[in-house]
Amino acid sequence: MKALLKQNIAKHISLLENEIEDFCNLFKQKLIPKKNFLLREGEICKFEGFVTKGLFRVYHIDKNGFEQILYFAIENWWITDIDSFTAETPSQLFIEALEDSEVLIISKKDKEFAYANLPQIEKLFRVMTQKTHVALQRRMIDNLSKTAESRYIEFTEKYPQLLQRLSNIQIAAYLGITNVFLSNIRKKIAVKK
């Protein structure tokens, strides 16, 4: 399980074997059964997590009761509410397991310990934060400038591994459209083929 975490870290930075071992030992394994929550709105997020098995959705419920999915997290992805984690304020998000899932979590205290004792770890999180900002910026631009159909097509091309694991309702919530509208898009695409 920690082998996947070590591979992920190695994609971003170089650490000595003992350093990577020390860092990985700061993580605790947490099992989250399907339909259970890693975080609920109103709780303070006390972790950053690395998904080793399963599938999560990170979402917000707006004032009209509509679910807005920010992102999905599968194996080899990081997961948190960075706002709540950093500011230690109540979360506006839910993090729910859509499958029986396993996640390695690190506390703020242990992360700070890693920053102080393993200087390369700060670089790791800086690089990951920059990549997250790029992804969020691209998603915002896409949501503002592209049609729902083109966003759906890009989603299917970018995340083919998610298509069989998600319901149409979940995909629609991620795209910011209704399930009926998504069904119409899928029919339209099928006719074109």
UniProtKB/TrEMBL annotation:
Coiled-coil residues: none
Start and end residues of each Cyclic nucleotide-binding domain: 32-110
Gene3D superfamilies: Jelly Rolls
InterPro entries: cNMP-bd_dom (IPR000595), cNMP-bd_dom_sf (IPR018490), RmlC-like_jellyroll (IPR014710)
One Pfam family this sequence matches: cNMP_binding
Protein name from the UniProt record: Cyclic nucleotide-binding domain-containing protein
The organism of origin for this protein: Flavobacterium hercynium
